[in-house]
Amino acid sequence: MTENCSLVARLYAHAREAPLNSAIVTPSDTITYRELAQLVLAQAEVLYRKGIIESTSVGICCEDQVQHLIYSLALDHIGATSFSVPTYESRASQLAMLQQGNADVELDETFASDVLGSGTSHKLAYLTQPALAIEDSHSRHDAALLFTTSGTSGKPKLVIHHSSDLVAQAHRHIQSPQERFACLANIQHNFAKRHRLYCVAMGACNVFIDNAPESIVNDCLRTGITALHVSAIQAQALLAAKETDKLSHICLKLGGSHVPLTLRAELRNRITQQLKAGYGTTETGAIAFTDPDDEQAGESVGQPLPGIEVQIVDTNKSPLGVGQQGEIAIRCKGMFRGYFKQEEQTQLRLQNGWFFTGDIGYLDDKQRIFVCGRRDDMFVFNSMNIYPQDIEAVLCQHPMVLDAAVVPKESANHGNIPVALVVPNTKSEASKQSIEQFSQDRLGSRCPRQFILVERIPRNSSGKISRKEAQIEAHKRPLTRDRLRQTLADVLSTTSRINIKPALLKAFEQSHKDIFIEDLTLDSLARMNLLVALEVNHGVLINFEELAQLDSLEQLVELALAADSECSQHKSSSMPFSARSIARSTNAAYAGAPYAVRLFWRLLRRCDSITAFNKASHLLKHRLTPAQCQELIEQHGRAELIPEMLDQALKSAIIVWLQHFDILFQQE
Question: How many Å apart are CA 580 and CA 606, to the nearest integer?
Fold first, then answer.
């Protein structure tokens, strides 16, 4: 049987060649390959009689894992397109997924063949009859299966695979027909479903167990599991189970998200030495797994699996050398056919037989793959490229850190400032300071400028960080006078080469003493760190020129309070009138405003005259699209664009400029 056949063709071949081999095992039941083939044929007949044919698109909304697998194989037999609609999603989300996949039919448990019997036991009355009568031509189709991408930073895409693509990928995941494979994630999850289908393709045994910590070890032993696939989050939960050392014989495979070295070491020490950290994509299947015997693997995900070609390329798609960081490109058999209804994305990511993953990484001299993060997650902080996963990996090496996420906070002056959400094992100021120092020592200028202790890191169902939710969490910081002093004191206490005694710094933090800025002998980097800290912790935007006009730290506190809309009664006479009024009027709304509006405000902060604004407007003319210009006009129409306290002459100039926006762009 070749790789170029469908999943059901492989199923029927296994049913003929090894009919009594176990295909599915649960803690209470066993289904052989002969029985599974008959179940699939019976289910296909039911669906065919209900009008499901080759051209039908079907959303499978079924929590029962065995039934879900049977549905998937029966639809493959018919040739219908299928995809999962998770039962744990809200009904509104389910309807959106059905619409996105152009579903004609939604399958739930009510469509199940009664061959399985009642309830969820899956006990079979042994079928002695040969395959049920369905036209043989139906079993020859190479049906399409749609899988959702993780959607960590945007709307998930639907990845198109054909049944034969999964057959071509299967040998990279399942080692042999003797493997008894379990996955702690439900089959409704993308990677779990693919692994279940890989098992069928290879003639291996699908084992379904409960993932409850109190029963998981016993279930693994009772069902004879030889390989267990978990995400990083599930691996942490597995460590909470009792007697995990009894699983030392199994192969533990890690995938779905980055796995820190500390977690890998703990899993090896407490569960099994047969640990494989993997790397793969929905579009290609498995790309690499670490070798348990490779002591030099480090943070890598191992070498490419046989049949996988890997290149690291620059922005022009030109190959890079050893150790050079760029986008990871993959070529192999069984790659996806495209993105459903997204031809432009398909052409962008799939070129000349290569899939450009969007992951940033590099190869070492042993061809190990090191994944640094997502291209889409990368952000720029003061001209430095910041890859969050790189920093998260360092943070998770700290013994007090259970989990971490690094996200950008948009800055008018510094690009995007790195902020760390950290889940500590002990929530105290001492642990926070230890983590901050640890990070600063190892990351230097790439160190996060704010550390927020949280109960959990928001993740999606695949265990990947949901960075949109994490960014929302990072913005939840109030502004108070005490917090401002503490922020300044924290920055100065970790700044080298400044002339200040700790007791004086403590007195300032407690509002007993003021400190003259001139006495601190701050260099440009230290001054930048002060301003970054104010912006990232409190949303206060102050530039170098404004700082240079101040004499003391207490004046800086007053200026910061003046820039906040809730504390507008505190003014600094040394602050230019336009910067002061704009800061007070726009600071609270800055984070949620459209890009064009934020750019407008950023430029306006530097305008203290009509001449300065005319120069800024010339820049805007070349930076904004007509649609973005319309955003400015709409914001002005709601009286939310021009600060009320702005100089009247400058305000009038801006209004005239807005009225002639269309003319300005027609002249381009």
Answer: 11
How many of the other CB atoms lie within 10 Å of CB of 45? 20
What stretches in the chain show pLDDT beneath 70?
1-3, 114-140, 150-155, 256-257, 383, 412-413, 429, 461-462, 476-479, 496-497, 563-592, 602, 605-609, 615-616, 618-624, 644-645, 660-668
Could you give the 3-state DSSP secondary structure of residue 327? Answer: strand
CA distance 233 to 237: 7
Identify residue 141 by its one-letter amino acid code: H
The residues near 197 (Cβ < 8 Å, ≥ 6 apart) are 7, 69, 72, 73, 145, 166, 170
CB 301 within 8 A of CB 289: yes
Burial class, 151, CB count within 10 angstroms (exposed 0-12 / middle 13-18 / buried 19+):
middle
| Structure token digits, residue 581 | 């009024």
Torsion angles phi and psi, residue 157, rounded to 5: -100, 155
Q: What is the CB neighbour count within 10 angstroms for residue 429?
A: 8
Q: DSSP string of 106-139?
A: EE-GGG--GGG-STT----PPP-S-S----GGGG
Amino acid of residue 313 = V
SS (H, E, C) 222-259: HHCCCEEEECHHHHHHHHCCCCHHHHCCCEEEECCCCC
pTM of the model: 0.65
Distance CA(585)–CA(570), nearest Å, equals 14
